[in-house]
Design brief:
Blueprint (H helix, E strand, L loop, with lengths): L3 H7 L16 H12 L5 E2 L11 H12 L12 H15 L8 E4 L1 H13 L5 E6 L4 H8 L3 E6 L10 H7 L4 E7 L11 H12 L5 E5 L15 H4 L7 E6 L12 E4 L2 H12 L7 H12 L3 H23 L13 E2 L20 H12 L1 E2 L1 E2 L9 E4 L4 H16 L3
Parallel strand pairs: 1-10, 3-4, 3-5, 5-6, 6-7
Antiparallel strand pairs: 2-8, 7-8, 9-12, 11-12
Helix pairs in contact: 2-13, 3-11, 4-11, 5-6, 5-10, 7-8, 12-14, 13-14
The protein binds pyridoxal-5'-phosphate.
Pyridoxal-5'-phosphate binds next to helix 5.
């Protein structure tokens, strides 16, 4: 008989792959924020990448109708034919990309789609080029899938974007993927058609490299910045690009968990095989909602983007007027990524010196009660990310508190 002590002695033996993935570097900050909240402090959270708007009513109505119509059963593994048709139409209408339904994959959030693609393609030691700063999940997803993340630092001087030269020198015979994310989480930087063109020219010389483009923030853009995606810029790359997108951010549907991609049939089939042996189809009700989102009106976006742009400008003004901080203007998404280089080496009232952006984020949390994410979590320091998907008045208050706290640094 197995007693508790025997079970403990045997212990839980985790897989080797677990040593390759790190717990999120923001855990300590999140725990501190929670602790301060428990103490009754009014902590303003600017760390969450989630719109504060609600899912549009016509989308909710479609989900309710789907439940009433009995659409509550298993569906095709990687998406219903109706949703795939809506995605095909979206790609053609909005991006000028012509996919067949067999070239479409739908998963439980953009995250699952990306993960499926990496699992389906990476062998031990295969390299994935990830421009830094990057969305936190890319390197760990690559490691979990057995690959090797190759991060390429893209500094402020390059607007946090990958240049053709940097791409060329990062490519090796083992390179399997280049990850592009435009507009970017965490910087909001967006690639223009001509910037994508120059990356495409490099890729044309290296047929072993596929491109995983994460267009999740396509619809959140400002100042008339024009979105385009690499498969549209260079049709000769079409057969080795996976164009990923989802409804989470633009349609304020983070909880519905629907992401999708268009790409080569062989890859899409392999992704479906992985999904069929792990989670099967994404929620049938959410798929019905996603059809309404993708096929329905987009006018609500203009209103929401106007609010986001106002908040972006509020944050930009604040961070560019605090001595020691500086922030470039994002083209899209809902993040600001200010540099805190001018704060490094400064002293807090209790004598502690700010040595890293993690120290700076801790300082903001303790002194200003504002939660932000340090740039090092995204692979580039010393910066910090704030999300402006937060009520305007809260954002304004956060900026005031940050300015006050920074003014007290020695
Ligand atoms: C760049 C980027 N890609 C993908 C995702 C994942 O989206 P989803 O919630 O649909 O899984 C996120 C979410 O934060 C993101 O920022």
């Amino acid at each position: 008989m197995m007693h508790g002590t025997t079970a403990t002695a045997l212990g839980v033996r985790l897989a080797r792959r677990m040593s390759a993935v790190q717990p999120s570097p923001t855990i300590a900050i999140t725990q501190l924020a929670n602790e301060l909240r428990r103490q009754g402090k009014d902590v303003i959270g600017l760390s969450q990448g989630e719109p504060d708007f609600d899912t549009p009513n016509h989308v909710k109505a479609a989900a309710k109708a789907a439940i009433d119509a009995g659409q509550t059963k298993y569906t095709d593994v990687d998406g219903t034919p109706e949703l795939k048709r809506a995605i095909v139409a979206k790609f053609e209408r909005e991006n000028g990309l012509r996919y067949e339904p067999a070239q479409i994959s739908v998963g439980t959030g953009g995250k699952q789609v990306l993960y499926n693609a990496l699992c389906a393609t990476l062998d031990e030691g295969d390299e994935v080029i990830i421009p830094a700063p990057y969305w936190v999940s890319y390197p760990d997803m690559v490691r979990l899938a057995g690959g090797k993340p190759v991060t390429v630092a893209c500094g402020e001087a390059d607007d946090f974007k990958l240049t053709a030269e940097a791409l060329r020198s990062a490519i090796t015979p083992r390179t399997k993927w280049l990850v592009l994310n435009s507009p970017s989480n965490p910087t909001g930087a967006g690639y223009s058609a001509s910037e994508l063109r120059s990356l495409a020219d490099v890729l044309l010389d290296h047929p072993q490299v596929m491109v995983l483009t994460d267009d999740m923030y396509e619809h959140l853009r400002y100042d008339g910045w024009e979105f385009t995606t690499i498969a549209a810029v260079e049709p000769a790359l079409f057969d080795r690009v996976l164009t990923c997108n989802g409804v989470s951010k633009a349609y304020a549907m983070t909880g519905w968990r629907i992401g999708y991609a268009g790409g080569p049939t062989k890859l899409i089939k392999a992704m479906a095989t992985i999904q069929s042996q792990s989670t099967t189809n994404p929620s049938s009700v959410s798929q019905a909602a996603a059809i309404a989102a993708l096929s329905g009106p987009l006018d609500f976006l203009a209103e929401r983007n106007a609010v986001f742009q106002e908040r972006r400008d509020l944050g930009l003004k604040a961070f560019n007027s605090i001595e020691g901080l500086g922030c470039r203007k994002p083209d899209g998404a809902f993040y600001l990524f200010p540099s805190c280089a001018g704060m490094i080496g400064r002293r807090r009232a209790d004598g502690r010196v700010i040595e890293t952006d993690v120290d700076f984020a801790t300082f903001l949390l303790e002194e200003a009660n504002v939660a932000v994410v340090p740039g090092s979590a995204f692979g580039l320091a010393p910066f910090f990310r704030i999300s402006f998907a937060t009520a305007t008045e809260r954002l304004r208050l956060a900026c005031e508190r940050i300015a006050d706290a920074c003014g007290k640094l020695g």
